Structure formats: C-alpha cells, structure tokens
Amino acid sequence: MSSSSELSGGETTAPSGFRARVLTMADNSRLKGLTSLGPIVTLLTVFYAIPVALLIVYSVFVDDPFVTAITFEHFARFLDLSAVISLQIGDLPYVRLLARSLGIAVVVTVLSLIIAYPITYYLGQHAPERWQMLLVLLVIIPFWTSYLIRTYAWIPILSRNGFINGALGALGLPTVPLLNTYWGSIIGLVYVFVPFVILPLYASMRSLDASLIEAARDLGASRSAVFREVVFPLTLPGALAGAVFVFIKCAAAYVTPALLGGTSGRMFAQVIETQFGTAFNWNFGAALSVILVAVVLGSLWIAMRLGIDVGKSRGLGGGGL
Amino acid sequence: MSSDLHVDGVTKHFGDVRAVDDVSFTVEEGTFVTLLGPSGCGKTTTLRMIAGYETPTTGRVTLGDRDITDEKPYQRPTSMVFQSYALFPHKTVGENVGFGLKMRDVPSEERDRRVAEILELVELPGTEDRAIDELSGGQQQRIALARSLVIEPEVLLLDEPLGALDLKLRKNMQVELKDLQEELGITFVYVTHDQEEALTMSDEIVILNDGRIEQRGTPAEIYESPRTRFVAEFIGDTNLLDGTYVATDSGAYLECGSVEFPVEPNPAAESGATLSVSIRPEKVSLEESAARNGGSTETDITLDGVVDDVIYQGNVAKIHVRIGDSELISERHVVNSTDLPTPGSECRVRWTKEHADVLVE
C-alpha cells in the first residue's frame, strides 16, 4: 500500500536527533515491558518450570533412594519391546501403547474438526444474531459440570444395555460393544474436546466476511467448492488452534480412557499413573512423562513444518501458527 | 433477442419492515442504470434481488424472456462487484480473477489466457502472481471488476464499488467504469448514494426513497425536472419556494406570500395544495435594480429583492437574495470578482417558467 511507503519515507527524512530520542523511548518501554512481565515469569517458573525440571531430574536417576547416579535405563525400558504392560487381552510394549495413544489423539482431533466445522459454520454465518450468544452458551454450559461427572454420565449411554444399544435394539439392529472399548475412549474424548475446537473455530467463522462466500457462489462455486476454496482455507488458523489444543490434551488423556476405554482403549497416561500410584516407580513414571511430552512436541513440530510447506505451496504463507 | 432486465412489481419484506415496496423498472440491454438513494432506501436490497441473494416477497425479475426470480446467483447470467470487493485474501490475483472460470471447469490454459486478457483490460497486466494485500484500494477495485467480467456476465451488478476509494481516485474510476461499460456493451446496474457519481456515469437513474421509486429518468431529466421534493433536495442544490399552487384553465401559478408567479402546470398536483417549487440556483439570474427592463411576462419571471449575502467560491459565487419572506440563491460563474453585487444592494432576480418545477411530496 502507498501509505506504508509514505511512512518509511517520513522516517528517513526525520532529523537524526528526533530519531535517537524515539529509540531511547522504545528501549525504555521495552525495559518497562520486561519488568511488568516479572510476576508472570515468577508464576510460570514456580508452577510450571520447576515441576517439569524435577520430572526431568527424576527420569534420569536410578530407582533406588540410597543411590545417587544418573542412568538412562528407564528410557531403555520404554524402548525395550520385551518389556510389556500386561493387559487382559495380551501384553503390549510401551512403545505400542504410546503409538496407540497418539493414534487416538489424531482420530479424536480429526473427528472433533469434522463435527465442529458444520456447527461453527452455521453458528458464525447463518444463525440469527440474537440466537448466536445462546447457542454459544449451549456449547459452554457442559463446562459448568465436572469433567469426571460428565464422563461417568457416558457409562449408561455406552453400556451393553445402555441408551445407544437400547435404541439399536428397538430398531431391530444388532447391538455394538462400546463401553470399555477403543471406541468408548474415542467417543468420550470427542465429547469432551469438541467445544475446544468449536470456540476458536467459531471466532474464525465470525470474522469470515460473508460477502466472500456470496462472491464465490456468484462466481459459480458449488457448496462444497465454497467450503474447499474459501471457508476452509480462511478458517484454518482457528481450526489449527483448536486442533493443537485437542491433540495435546488427548495424547495425555487419563480419566476418559480409564472410565470408558477398558483395556482396548487404554492410553499412555494411565500407565504413567500406574508407575507413580501403584508401582511406586517414580523414576520410570517420570521418564514416561518426559517421553510423552517430547513425542507430542515433536509431532506438533513436524505437523507445523508440513503445514507451513503446504501453506507456502498454496500461497497461504507461513502465517497463523 | 433482446435481454432487457425487467424488475416487475417487486416487494421485499424483512419481518415487519418493507425494505422494497412495489418497485418496477426496466434496464435496457447495454445501458448503465444507477439505483440512487440514501442508506436504507432499498437500493441494495433491490440489487441483491437482481443478483439472487434475496428472493422477492412478491414480484418478478426477468432477463429478456427468462424469469430469473427464483434462480440461484450462479445460475443467473449476472455477476456482482461488492462494496468490500470480496476478493479472496488467500488467493493470488490470478487465482481470484480465474476463480469463476475454474468453477466452470475451463481448462487451465484457456483460463490463463482469459485472465491475462481481462487484466489487460483493467490495466493491470502481468499481476497474476501478486498477493491481494499487496495491491492498493484502486487496484483491488479493478481486480474485483476483472473477476466479475471474466465470466462474461450479461448484467454486471455493482454495489457502491467506489465507496472505499478517496475522492480523486473515485472520480477517475467513475470515468473509467463508464468507458469500460461502453466498450464492453454489458448492462451495468450500479448502486450508489452519491448523486454526483450517478449523474456522471448513468444513462438512466432510478431514485429510491423509503423502498419506493421517487423518479426515474436520464441524469438531465432528473436534475432539470425533479418531480418530488425529495428528488429536488437529494440531487444537487436547489431553491425551494413554498406556497399555494393554483391551477386554472389559462395556466398555473404559485402564491408565495406577497408575490405570485406563473409555473409549469403539474398534473400530479392539486389546485389549492400547499407545495414547493424548485428552481436550481444556476437558473436564477441576477440583475442590478437600475437596469430595469420590464417586469414578469408569461414565461419570464422577475422579482425584486435585496442582496443578503455573497458567497465567493472561486469559479462560482452564490448570491443570497431576500424576496419578501423567502430567500433565493442565484449561482453564477465568476469571471471578475469585482463584478459581484454588494450585500444590501437592491436587485432583481429572473428565471424562466420551465425552470420552476412544481414538486409533490
């Protein structure tokens, strides 16, 4: 734009004294900015950095309170395919369980996006203005009840004689095992995490200029083409913000798989809990935690790199995330 | 086959609000018609019904013999240029302009060729790979135009497309748009609230107020012969003289306080009604009182008055003249500023009867 070139032109012609003064002012405000960050830095250090540091320390110490020695045996145990978690259906190496957890997180994230997109598209673009707040409230209301209680509420819905199977039976359809299965975990997690995708995606949908959709329709785009060409790429930042959150939280999910997943829906955080709570092997538990964090961060980093490459090739730039 | 656009008895309700009220007009093929009116007058709603974004509550929209009232926007041979341009921010200029062709499954080589052609037409050749946010407002405007034109619509609909541009650019674009329309021979339906823009570009103007058509006609007809008070006030500046309208067999006149003068009869006005007469300031000539050369005749009205104020505006001057209880403004081109009358001096104003338009509400 022309205004930016005018601005930069103005800067170069400004007297140097003026410029110097501007710089010191900027330095001062930067300093002020740092000091004002003090409380939050302290807070994060105490409540976040120190526990994580302790976890890392635990993970590399031997499992003997009387010996102080650094070891990587816990990490080796994680990688050892013959070291297994015993489940009723068979034994599972730790690596496989982590892979399954990440798989569940991916499935839940994708399902949440698939569910959230039409809901937010309607909310942000079609719902009458006066209903929008109410509808958004409906999305938020479940948060007023404890996560644990809401998860318990799914047990009678998913159980063998529960609501879903009762309905299937009434329709003369075969019943499906849901509670204490892989899909029990998935359904429970999707239920919990869909709102976390809906909210940022709704914000993106709201800010999407409706005339862009009209213009696309006007130029001959079908409904699916409007979504593919306009709505999806322009709301992707909101979707990604939600998806990253859901993926991180899901990969470390504990309560939902514990209550709804049974053995086939078991996830990695449950094994970590066992090490801390039942096996009293805090060092191995800490190592598993560190591994989980590292793997989640690593997979996000890879996904972001891929996303940026895709974005670049489609002219989206690396913006957003 | 002619493909004139007919808007026939169209009414649109939004809940209890009647946004458009029994509007009918015809746009001849290849002409530039402007829907003009203040905000909330129903002009944009009318345009959106032509485009297919709104469905009329009653009435039909036809193009030639084809009833398009219930067709979807993309089924109609119309295309819309939005006030906000509605360019896709995540696509390049070329992808934006080629969007409609891509949706029509035009092969990519032909698409590229036609995009290049149309970019040439809007004087932005070779900008295919530029990002939208690298362009200035005026350039974005051209791209929006190109994106609509490339699909070769029969009717191009423009919703205040110049509203976001600064004055100078807007003036340039007005001329360019008109030239482009004449060159392409496409029907343009243009919505604006800017009367000057409407006068500059249009073959015909439809003036809307409160959901209804106030008047339609060529720019000259609208400006020179306003029929309602709203039109006279909305288009340009004018003198309004209030009085009692008297129509007799031998002619009509207006009783205006202590003076009365003949006016062109208006069949829509009732004799004895209180109404206004509009006289454009530049139609009122001013003479020094000394140069008395006869009083009013049947077609030439002269009234004596006193110069109240002289407002000098460079090329023109506005001279306020008090006549009895009324004040009249005479506008003239200034050649020598020393020729202007001085306030307080006696003078005589003169106009011809055909320039005094009897207005109805």
UniProtKB/TrEMBL annotation, chain A:
InterPro entries: MetI-like, MetI-like_sf
Entry's Gene Ontology cellular component terms: plasma membrane
PROSITE patterns, A to Z: ABC_TM1
Gene3D superfamilies: MetI-like (1.10.3720.10)
Principal cellular location given in the protein's record: membrane
Compartments where located: Cell membrane
Keywords: Cell membrane, Membrane, Transmembrane, Transmembrane helix, Transport
Keyword rRNA-binding in record: no
Domain ABC transmembrane type-1 positions: 98-303
Family to which this protein belongs: Belongs to the binding-protein-dependent transport system permease family. CysTW subfamily.
Record-given protein name: Spermidine/putrescine transport system permease protein
Biological classification of the source: Archaea, Methanobacteriati, Methanobacteriota, Stenosarchaea group, Halobacteria
UniProtKB/TrEMBL annotation, chain B:
Listed Gene3D superfamilies: 2.40.50.100, P-loop containing nucleotide triphosphate hydrolases (3.40.50.300)
Principal localisation: membrane
The entry's keywords: ATP-binding, Cell membrane, Membrane, Molybdenum, Nucleotide-binding, Translocase, Transport
Entry's Gene Ontology molecular function annotations: ABC-type polyamine transporter activity; ABC-type tungstate transporter activity; ATP binding; ATP hydrolysis activity
Class of the enzyme per the UniProt entry, highest EC level: translocase
UniProt topology in membrane: Peripheral membrane protein
The keyword Transport is annotated on this UniProt entry: yes
Alphabetized Pfam families for the sequence: ABC_tran (PF00005), TOBE_2 (PF08402)
Domain of life: Archaea
Cellular component GO terms held in the UniProt record: ATP-binding cassette (ABC) transporter complex
InterPro entries: AAA+_ATPase (IPR003593), ABC_SmlMolc_Importer (IPR050093), ABC_transporter-like_ATP-bd (IPR003439), ABC_transporter-like_CS (IPR017871), Mo/tungstate-bd_C_term_dom (IPR008995), P-loop_NTPase (IPR027417), PotA-like (IPR005893), Transp-assoc_OB_typ2 (IPR013611)
Subunit record text: The complex is composed of two ATP-binding proteins (WtpC), two transmembrane proteins (WtpB) and a solute-binding protein (WtpA).
Family per record: Belongs to the ABC transporter superfamily. Sulfate/tungstate importer (TC 3.A.1.6) family.
Protein name stated in the entry: Molybdate/tungstate import ATP-binding protein WtpC
Organism: Halorubrum vacuolatum (Natronobacterium vacuolatum)
